[in-house]
User: Which sequence fits this backbone?
């Protein structure tokens, strides 16, 4: 394998990691502040993608489509927070898992009822449809570069939001002591709705961004959801920094594992069984990574005991 | 000279910049009640956890019955015969009072790997548990759900569970809290008799009880023991008066 | 008698009575459906030991269900094709005998539970939920991409395995077999909850510190519970594979683990008959709702949501009231 | 009220018996188990709609449709239900090979006919074949083998193969390699359900292949094609029709233009009846028919043709009637090989744009009278 190819694969790993971060950030915020496991986070991702595809279909504008994805997911987030989720904060994790599992069923089949069973069309804007040449002669899809940039900007914005703003202070206060912020006169239920909507909007944005280069279809959220969970568990639940590090680790492991493991096994076995065994191990690699991290750090890399 | 049953030797424990335990050495002799007092935040609970298990000291040793138990788990120390009660009740709240006591008896018997016979029909275990409940005066509440007990009654149950273990020494963290005046008095009488069975390391805020019961008193301030002695010695100690009792005098 | 006792008796008898009715009406499919509910109930009864009594929310119990299924699939596959399973210094043949298959299913899933439990129980709370999910996913992807036993296509067994003296292909006889096993396990779980081990495990769920202070180790209690739990779910997996005469990686999927939890919560967490009630209710809903609409899963979702939000304690909890402490 | 309904039930029962007693060409009860919910529902819905279109107005057919949710255990359960409770004569509808493997052996073991409108796993074409099992679609390898043949004819020398790491994927690539005489320069098996192919595309770009040949069903194919278009890699793209069918092309859009794919049917195929089928389907459902719709349609035609010749209760006669395949397939000529799998032509199609609609157009024949290689193992 040439160094150029390796660099390109590392870029690919980064890009998929950054997308995972958008999902994982919301998930980990919601857990950190409200102590809630939200399995329906994948549905918000799907809602973002479908909203984007629908709006892009009507208007032809990708920017409007992204805005619609943010708005639709945030709105859906607000609604489910107010109708369902807020009843779950005091419940144990089991009830949360179950109720949000039920939400997945409702959202998936509801979306299918609205949009039908066939995948929707959503493409990258024409201006970004080709590759760009990076230093070193790497041809890299410009849209993917854009995703990396947007993702990094959002990560930066999120860190700023939490470190600098009033709402960020409230979020941090909420993470360390839930009763305390109520005593400080913060409107908790409003704060919770805002945090949930923020997480939802990030998921929706990720769905729309990814939907343009993947398939916009019912059920697209669940595989990403599981990956996002792996990310926040590796990073330490509740930690935004952990989510970023975890997302990049998972993105890189997944991408490079799929490329390198078959090659590695090819060194000492015949090509076809090397491909089979390498691919089998590659598909398990992130779960193995997660198990290893938890064995040595039972609360993740940046988690609090 | 008799050997101390429990010997805490030069314990240090820091949490970040906070030195919670700062070179503590103390002993518990057979037959005595040794009270540990000190203002809030003095590091009593941290010290208790290093003695009974749950927090590992940065330096120093804990000896129990001549054996170094510093590296042992809570569970192993309990098996070695250290009976402990908690400041905040630590009980199986959904179980009945009797079941909590039976759990203690079960722990002592070590016969937990039994998967068929109902534990509440094990006459020997239930008898031990009943006896312990009677000693603390909870026999009438045997069938009550633990969550329905008052705070004071939960304290008594903590003590009863510790009794079922037939420990060689007790470590009790504020057993009087929430008992009320008459309850405190009864508990005082009870502990007074208990010291003949096994010595007690007693952390307590109720000064009347401490001065009535303790053979020796140690005063812990900012992680250090500033004085150890009989009730009279402690009352007279100028350091203690300024650091601890002094505050009350001023007030 | 307590209301829960009466309710349990009704639930327990509902299955054989319904099966007998179906038999009388010559509706063999209904018997198969009831058998399916009974097997799901068994799997969830296994999980309920860890989840209900031990407080261990495992989102990876499909791993044991699948291992049990594949124990049956692999053994029967080798017996069916007359190829030895292991053929080196020791020769191990496949088998079509149910008792042998069950034994293998129980032992292998118990061993897997021992390994997974020993690693996972170092964590707690959400981390435990997620690490068990991760182990389940590992098995899922392994089963899909390992070509030796059919990969995603799974393995078909043309004839149900045999049990001495029974015609297992007869729906009623197979149901009776499953029901006897379910009864035996329920009986044992009822005893287990009251046995010394059950008391200690339940206390460890409520307050781990308390259990430590009386000299017992919560880790070992939980590990043993997890192993027994996995073994029971593994046994259910072997029966499920025999019911369908087929195994596939979907038995390992995380949705399967989710469904087991759904059964328990629908029925009532920690109640002996909770998983039984939940599995029966779920299979009934599936049977009644799926012909109504293509989008019937919406209704399942809505019902589930309502149960979690408003009917705490599940079916049994709503009907029988708050749990009374044992004895 | 009660008496009334009892009488009504009795009448219906009598009518039912009368129909059965009618004997030759009597009513046939069909059980259709297909995927109608979840991510793979599009295929099942097309098969169902195609089948129902052909059966429309035929009152000799009594059709029960149930959703298998793409889960093997549900499919097995439904098959049991249809055989044991609904007492169907013929089963059909399953989309996925793994579900077919779970259901078909037990269906034929219980003496019922099974007509496959989509899946064709190799086991059922070879050692596991059955007199009661008829495949109206294809053996799984057919499109791949035809792809290899076409590549040989059209000067394609170096290919890069890609498929998900599961049996249908590996079998497909094996099928291609069976007929392909050029050089396979790379071979990648991805995780099932993978949605990001950046790593694989980079590998393909780095290889010296002139053509990438892939099989990625459903959303996987959509994702790959969109990402491929964005990568700017200039290589030919080929595959079986599964990744380029009508239901999917709409979601890929222009990114699919120019892709070659093998299929036994296309809506522009000029054979008798096909244009009528396409029009009728569009009129009925308001969308273009897909390959799966055509297969569902043909399955119903085959069944109806056999019903005209024999009574379904007479298993041997009905089997013989099915074997004749005396119907006008929308694929043109169609007959069964000894293992009850199709002998048919496979075409090469290219993705083009007709007005605003991205669709397929036939550009040539890839294989004539194609049949599978597993028939040799079939003893029946």
Assistant:
């Amino acid at each position: 394998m040439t160094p150029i190819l390796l660099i390109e694969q590392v870029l690919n790993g980064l890009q998929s990691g950054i997308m995972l971060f958008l999902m994982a950030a919301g998930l980990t915020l919601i857990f950190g502040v409200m102590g809630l496991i939200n399995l329906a986070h994948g549905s918000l991702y799907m809602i973002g993608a479908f909203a984007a595809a629908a709006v892009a279909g009507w208007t032809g504008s990708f920017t409007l489509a992204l805005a619609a994805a943010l708005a639709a997911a945030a709105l859906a987030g607000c609604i489910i927070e107010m109708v369902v989720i807020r009843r779950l904060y005091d419940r144990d994790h089991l009830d949360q898992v179950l109720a949000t599992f039920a939400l997945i069923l409702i959202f998936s089949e509801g979306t299918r009822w609205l949009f039908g069973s066939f995948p929707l069309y959503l493409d990258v804007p024409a201006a970004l449809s080709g590759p760009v040449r990076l230093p070193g002669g790497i041809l890299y899809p410009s849209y993917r570069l854009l995703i990396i940039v947007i993702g990094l900007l959002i990560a930066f914005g999120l860190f700023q939001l939490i470190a600098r703003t009033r709402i960020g202070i409230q979020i941090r206060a909420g993470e360390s002591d839930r009763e305390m912020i109520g005593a400080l006169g913060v409107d908790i239920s409003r704060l919770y709705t805002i945090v949930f909507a923020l997480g939802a909007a990030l998921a929706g944005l990720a769905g729309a961004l990814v939907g343009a280069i993947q398939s916009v279809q019912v059920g697209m959220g669940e595989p990403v959801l599981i990956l996002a969970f792996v990310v926040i568990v590796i990073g330490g639940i509740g930690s935004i920094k952990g989510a970023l590090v975890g997302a990049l680790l998972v993105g890189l492991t997944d991408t490079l594992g799929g490329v390198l493991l078959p090659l590695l096994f090819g060194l000492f076995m015949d090509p076809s069984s090397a491909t089979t065994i390498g691919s089998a191990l590659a598909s398990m690699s992130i779960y193995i990574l997660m198990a290893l991290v938890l064995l040595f750090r039972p609360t993740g890399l940046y988690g609090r005991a | 000279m008799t050997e101390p049953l429990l010997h805490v030797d030069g314990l240090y424990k820091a949490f970040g910049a906070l030195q919670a335990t700062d070179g503590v050495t103390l002993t518990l002799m057979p037959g005595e009640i040794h009270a540990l007092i000190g203002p809030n935040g003095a590091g009593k609970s941290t010290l208790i956890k290093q003695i009974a298990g749950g927090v590992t000291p940065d330096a120093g040793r804990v000896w129990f019955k001549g054996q170094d138990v510093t590296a042992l788990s809570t569970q192993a120390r309990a098996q070695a015969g250290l009976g402990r009660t908690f400041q905040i009740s630590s009980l199986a709240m959904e179980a009945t009072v009797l079941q909590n006591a039976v759990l203690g008896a079960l722990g002592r018997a070590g016969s937990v790997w039994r998967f068929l016979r109902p534990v509440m029909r094990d006459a020997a275990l239930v008898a031990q548990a009943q006896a312990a409940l009677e000693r603390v005066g909870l026999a009438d509440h045997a069938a009550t759900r633990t969550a329905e007990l008052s705070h004071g009654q939960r304290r008594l149950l903590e003590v009863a569970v510790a009794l079922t273990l037939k420990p060689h020494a007790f470590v009790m963290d504020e057993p009087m809290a929430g008992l009320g005046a008459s309850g405190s008095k009864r508990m005082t009488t009870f502990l007074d008799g208990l010291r003949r069975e096994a010595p007690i390391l007693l952390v307590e805020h109720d000064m009347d009880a401490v001065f009535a019961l303790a053979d020796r008193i140690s005063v812990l301030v900012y992680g250090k023991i500033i004085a150890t002695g009989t009730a009279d010695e402690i009352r007279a100690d100028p350091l203690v008066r300024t650091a601890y009792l002094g505050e009350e005098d001023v007030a | 008698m307590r209301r829960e006792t009466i309710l349990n008796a009704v639930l327990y008898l509902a299955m054989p009575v319904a099966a007998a009715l179906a038999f009388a009406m010559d509706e063999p499919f209904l018997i198969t459906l009831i058998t399916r509910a009974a097997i799901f109930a068994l799997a969830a009864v296994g999980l309920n030991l860890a989840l209900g009594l031990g407080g261990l929310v495992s989102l990876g119990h499909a791993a044991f269900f699948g291992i049990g299924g594949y124990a049956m699939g692999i053994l029967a596959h080798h017996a069916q094709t007359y190829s030895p399973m292991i053929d080196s210094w020791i020769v191990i043949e496949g088998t079509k005998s149910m008792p042998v298959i069950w034994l293998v299913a129980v032992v292998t899933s118990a061993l897997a539970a021992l390994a997974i439990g020993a690693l996972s129980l170092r964590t707690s709370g959400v981390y435990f939920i997620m690490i068990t999910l991760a182990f389940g996913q590992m098995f899922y992807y392994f089963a899909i991409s390992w070509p030796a036993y059919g990969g995603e296509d799974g393995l078909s067994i043309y004839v149900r395995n045999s049990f001495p003296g029974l015609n297992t292909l007869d729906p009623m006889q197979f149901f009776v077999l499953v029901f006897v096993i379910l009864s035996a396990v329920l009986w044992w779980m009822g005893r287990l909850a009251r046995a010394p081990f059950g008391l200690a495990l339940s206390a460890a769920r409520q307050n781990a510190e308390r259990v430590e202070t009386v000299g017992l180790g919560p880790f070992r209690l939980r590990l043993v519970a997890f192993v027994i739990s996995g073994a029971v779910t593994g046994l259910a997996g072997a029966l499920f594979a025999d019911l369908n005469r087929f195994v596939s990686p979907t038995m390992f999927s995380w949705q399967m683990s989710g469904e087991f939890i759904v059964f328990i919560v629908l029925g009532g967490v920690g109640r002996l008959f909770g998983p039984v009630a939940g599995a029966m209710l779920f299979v009934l809903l599936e049977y009644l709702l799926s012909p109504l609409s293509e989008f019937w899963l919406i209704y399942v979702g809505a019902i589930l949501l309502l149960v979690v939000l408003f009917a705490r304690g599940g079916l049994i909890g709503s009907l029988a009231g708050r749990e009374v402490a044992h004895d | 009220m009660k008496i009334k309904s009892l009488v009504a039930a009795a009448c219906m029962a009598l009518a039912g018996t009368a129909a059965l007693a009618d004997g030759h060409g009597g009513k046939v009860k069909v059980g259709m188990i297909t995927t109608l919910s979840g991510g793979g529902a599009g295929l099942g819905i097309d098969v169902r709609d195609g089948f129902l279109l052909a059966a429309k107005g035929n009152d000799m057919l009594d059709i029960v449709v149930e959703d298998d949710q793409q889960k093997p255990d549900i499919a097995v359960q439904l098959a049991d239900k249809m055989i044991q409770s609904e007492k169907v004569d013929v089963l059909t509808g399953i989309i996925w090979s793994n579900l077919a493997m779970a259901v078909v052996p037990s269906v034929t073991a219980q003496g019922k006919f099974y007509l496959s409108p989509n899946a064709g796993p190799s086991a059922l074409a070879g050692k596991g074949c059955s007199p009661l099992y008829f495949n109206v679609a294809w053996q799984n390898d057919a499109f791949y083998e035809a792809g290899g043949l076409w590549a040989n004819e059209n000067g394609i020398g170096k290919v890069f193969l890609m498929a998900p790491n599961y049996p249908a994927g590996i079998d497909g690539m094996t099928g291609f390699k069976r007929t392909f005489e050029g050089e396979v320069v790379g071979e990648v098996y991805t995780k099932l359900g993978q949605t990001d192919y950046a790593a694989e595309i980079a590998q393909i770009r780095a290889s010296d292949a002139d053509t990438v040949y892939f099989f990625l069903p459903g959303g996987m194919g959509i994702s790959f094609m969109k990402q491929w278009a964005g990568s700017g890699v200039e290589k030919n793209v080929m595959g079986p029709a599964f990744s380029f069918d009508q239901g999917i092309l709409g979601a890929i859009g222009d990114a699919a233009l120019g892709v070659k794919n093998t299929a036994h049917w296309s809506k522009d195929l000029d054979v008798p009846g096909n244009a009528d089928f396409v029009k009728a389907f569009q009129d009925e459902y308001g969308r273009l028919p897909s390959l799966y719709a055509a297969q569902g349609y043909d399955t119903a035609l085959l069944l109806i043709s056999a019903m005209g010749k024999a009574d379904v209760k007479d298993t041997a006669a009905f089997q013989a009637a099915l074997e004749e395949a005396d119907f006008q397939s929308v694929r043109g000529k169609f007959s069964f090989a000894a293992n009850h799998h199709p002998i048919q032509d496979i075409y090469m199609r290219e993705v083009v744009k007709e007005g605003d609609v991205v669709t397929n157009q036939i550009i040539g024949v890839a294989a004539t009278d194609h049949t599978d290689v597993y028939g040799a193992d079939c003893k029946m």
About this structure: Chain C touches chain B through 29 residues (CB under 8 Å). Chain C has 13 helices and four strands. The two ends of chain C are 13 Å apart (CA to CA).
